[in-house]
Every structure is written in structure tokens, then in C-alpha cells.
Write a structure and sequence with these properties.
Blueprint (H helix, E strand, L loop, with lengths): L3 E13 L12 E12 L5 E3 L10 H7 L6 H6 L10 E3 L18 E5 H8 L11 H8 L3 E4 L3 E4 L2 E5 L8 E7 L2 E5 L6 H4 L3 H4 L14 H11 L5 E3 L15
Parallel strand pairs: 3-4, 4-5, 5-6, 10-11
Antiparallel strand pairs: 1-2, 2-3, 7-8, 8-9, 9-10
């Protein structure tokens, strides 16, 4: 079974680039897209993450990322879908900007690592990006499936534990007609996985995410992630915003 991966921008953040690239480029203004990924193929309607509930939509932000920003509803409508049509949601992690629209998908089964569920209900003060209100309804309705490790959730789709950004981060390996692709389960851009020459000259193979629990573990996880598929898709890479499907 193969799929087409459609990155749909459902939000943005404007901040210091160092929030993405640990120890590098602090002080550089940067805009990242927040994606919901539609995996087209098979007999199930599958999303990876659900984006922001009320995204800021402006010409300035769209120019910065090179693509259109959608609401959850308008983004799904591009593919003839409504929230109630979604069968499966695969969560990279449960920071708010990745799960704010879960409650709208009343018929979806939602897969997430058990460590993310534990953290969203008992966050450390540093974990202000977790807010349990966003998953309360779907938990009460029994829609959430807690994973303990790597799991094949559908033919051609495997969730892989990659704790580089959060303890329960899960990357999603998808088989496509152009080979296997890994939607990273950690908040990065292409530069994290493929650093510039100046960084490589310091004997660094990757740049950890700017936000992480353990910098050393994050580094090793990114190195490993690059071996897991033929195409690596960092979770907030602006390049994908102007593309209908990835990999090209």
C-alpha cells in the first residue's frame, strides 16, 4: 500500500530561529508553518496532527512561508473532506499546536504515545505547550489509543518512537510511490537534519531541536531518524508549504 502525503498549513509561529536550531542562529527572526498532513490512499482517511484551532491568516505570514494558511475546515475541504470524515489521527506529540482540532474529528481513532498522555496531564512547568483541555473530549469518548512503542497502524504506515523534542515523540514512516518518507516527530526544519557547512565543520551531523528534554538524546535521535526512510520530512520546514504533496 502506498500513499500521497499532503502537507496542509493550519497555523504559523513567528519567533527566534534558535527555537528550532539549538545553539545556532539565535536572534534571527523566523516563521514556521504548522502542518496537518493528509495521507491519501487506502480505505481510511488519515491525518498526522491537526494544527491550530484559530490560525493567524495574513498575507505577511503566507509570504514568509511561501504558501497558503488554512483553517482546519478549509484545509480538509481541499480534498473533499470534513472533520467527521477522518478515521485516524496519528500524533507526533501533544503540544497544543499539533492537537487543537482533535475534538472536531468525532469519528476518529487517535494514536499517541503513552508518555505524551502522561505529560499532558501532569506537565512540568517548562512544558507550557501542553494543555489537556485539547484532548479531554476525545479521551472521554474513548477515541484515544495509547502506544508504548513502534507500531504499524495501517498497511504502509508505521509510527516510530523518536524522543528528540518530547518524551513520547512519534515519527510516521509512510510508503509512497517515490519511496519511504518519514514525517518527523520532532519540531525541526531541514537545517536540523542537514546542517550548513559551518556546523558540519564542528563535527556535528545534525542540530537538535531548540526545544527538547535531553540535548544528547535529541542529537542521537535525529542521527537515527535519517536512517529510517528514503525521504526525511522535518515537521516545520517552510519548503513544504508551497507543495501539493511530498516528497516531490
Amino acid at each position: 500500500m502506498t500513499y500521497r502525503i499532503h502537507p496542509i498549513v493550519m497555523g504559523t509561529k513567528v519567533f527566534d530561529k534558535g527555537m528550532m536550531t539549538y545553539q545556532h542562529d539565535y536572534g534571527t527572526p523566523y516563521t514556521i508553518p504548522i502542518y496537518c498532513w493528509y495521507l491519501e490512499g487506502g480505505d481510511k482517511k488519515i491525518l498526522v496532527d491537526t494544527g491550530e484551532m484559530n490560525p493567524v491568516i495574513s498575507a505577511e505570514r503566507e509570504k514568509a512561508i511561501g504558501g497558503k494558511i488554512h483553517t482546519f475546515e478549509s484545509g480538509l475541504a481541499k480534498y473533499g473532506l470534513k472533520p467527521e470524515d477522518i478515521d485516524i489521527i496519528l500524533h507526533t506529540h501533544l503540544h497544543n499546536d499539533h492537537c487543537e482540532n482533535d475534538y472536531k474529528c468525532e469519528n476518529a481513532k487517535i494514536y499517541v504515545h503513552e508518555k505524551e498522555l502522561a505529560r499532558i496531564h501532569d506537565p512540568h512547568p517548562l512544558d507550557f505547550r501542553y494543555l489537556e483541555d485539547y484532548i479531554g473530549d476525545v479521551e472521554e469518548k474513548g477515541q484515544v489509543v495509547a502506544l508504548t512503542g513502534d507500531t504499524e497502524v495501517a498497511p504502509g504506515i508505521t509510527m516510530i518512537h523518536t524522543p528528540a523534542h518530547t518524551e513520547g515523540g512519534m515519527s510516521v514512516r509512510v510508503e509512497t510511490q517515490k519511496g519511504s518518507a518519514l514525517i518527523c516527530g520532532f519540531c525541526t526544519i531541514l537545517e536540523n537534519l542537514y546542517p550548513p557547512k559551518a556546523v558540519r565543520a564542528m563535527d556535528m551531523e545534525v542540530i537538535p531541536p531548540g526545544t527538547h528534554v535531553d540535548a544528547y538524546q535529541a542529537y542521537e535521535t535525529l542521527v537515527r531518524a535519517k536512517t529510517l526512510a528514503e525521504h526525511i520530512l522535518p515537521l516545520h520546514e517552510p519548503k513544504w508549504a508551497g507543495m501539493e504533496s511530498v516528497p516531490e
